[in-house]
Specification:
Blueprint (H helix, E strand, L loop, with lengths): L7 E11 L2 E7 L11 E4 L8 E4 L7 E6 L4 H7 L6 E8 L10 E6 L6 H7 L6 E5 L2 H4 L9 E4 L13 E5 L2 H10 L4 E3 L15 E4 L2 E4 H4 L2 E3 L3 E3 L13
Parallel strand pairs: 7-8, 7-10, 8-9, 10-11
Antiparallel strand pairs: 1-2, 1-6, 2-5, 3-4, 3-6, 11-14, 12-13, 12-15
The chain binds flavin-adenine dinucleotide and FE2/S2 (inorganic) cluster (FES).
FE2/S2 (inorganic) cluster binds next to loops.
């Protein structure tokens, strides 16, 4: 659980399109950026519950999030403009371990969101493989200069070579494929989250063969630990949030 579960209010400093996604910049205030792969709960204007987002970039004085507008909460966040204010809580959960020798970043779609900050924290430009469903989505690869990019029907997992410490984030089928190829990979998983700090049990998934809260155990987990994601994460599905 974070030291405080009280969200703080933060001003939007900028909002720009990156392909079909929005890069939302917030004034950092007293918040720490945390470790790459950790997440923040952002107030979604007009919605009951906040939504979880990985930190994408941490420029001086700011926190930046890459948002895919897939529903009412994310659309409301993408509609924010400079001067608007929202409540923010974080950093939350466990991020990527940085004690790796040969990092290889692997991202699929909006799953590339935590990778620019991860690359920075690894000290520069580790190799990165990114996969997108269209050329428009692939415009987001500009956030990771030098990355190798594929567009469907080529799958990003086809490019993974042995011998790397894979650090991945992307849709669930991609993560299962990465886990099968690289049993030592670190993977950032997703589940519906209502609180982000262990109070609501909305994010329960099967980890190490038992039901556990992803917001506390993860979202980044060693590949071998996740046994099933979809099965138990039903609590918030379909709920008015
Ligand atoms: C730790 C974590 C980090 C995340 N980081 C990012 C990020 O950096 N950028 C980003 O754009 N999104 C990120 N997400 C996903 C984001 O939180 C959801 O897209 C958002 O909550 C959807 O809200 P909505 O109201 O727009 O859509 P909703 O109406 O809530 O959902 C739209 C559709 O997406 C499905 N859905 C929503 N959230 C999830 C989920 N977490 N897992 C599986 N299916 C889901 C719903 O079932 C529904 O079908 C992250 C999620 C987690 C758990
Ligand atoms: S999101 Fe509430 S317990 Fe995990």
């Amino acid at each position: 659980m974070p030291s405080s579960v009280s969200p703080s209010r933060h001003r939007v400093t900028g909002s720009e399109w990156v392909g079909p996604y929005t890069l939302l910049r917030l004034e950092r205030g007293e918040l720490e950026p945390g470790a790459p792969g950790q997440f923040f709960m952002l107030e979604a204007p007009g919605r009951l519950l906040p939504r979880p987002f990985s930190l994408c970039l941490a420029p001086p004085g700011e926190l930046a999030f890459l948002v895919d507008p897939i529903g009412p909460g994310t659309e409301a966040l993408c509609a924010l403009g400079p001067g608007d204010e929202i409540h923010v809580l974080g950093p939350l959960g466990h991020g990527y371990r940085l004690d790796v020798e040969r990092p290889l970043l692997v991202g699929g779609g909006i799953g590339i969101a935590p990778l620019p900050y991860l690359a920075e924290q690894l000290g520069g430009s580790p190799p990165a493989l990114l996969g997108f469903r269209s050329d428009e989505h692939a415009e987001a690869a500009a956030l990771l200069p030098g990355s190798e990019v594929v567009v469907d029907p080529v799958l990003v997992t086809e490019l993974i070579e042995p011998g790397y410490d894979v650090m991945a984030c992307g849709p669930e089928p991609m993560l299962h494929a990465v886990a099968a190829l690289c049993p030592t990979a670190q993977l950032a998983w997703e589940a519906r989250m209502a609180c982000g700090y262990g109070a609501c049990y909305g994010c329960v998934v099967e980890i190490d063969g038992a039901l556990k809260r992803l917001c506390l155990e993860g979202p980044v987990l060693d590949a071998a630990r996740v046994t099933k994601v979809r099965a138990s994460n039903k609590l918030l599905q379909g709920a008015e949030a």
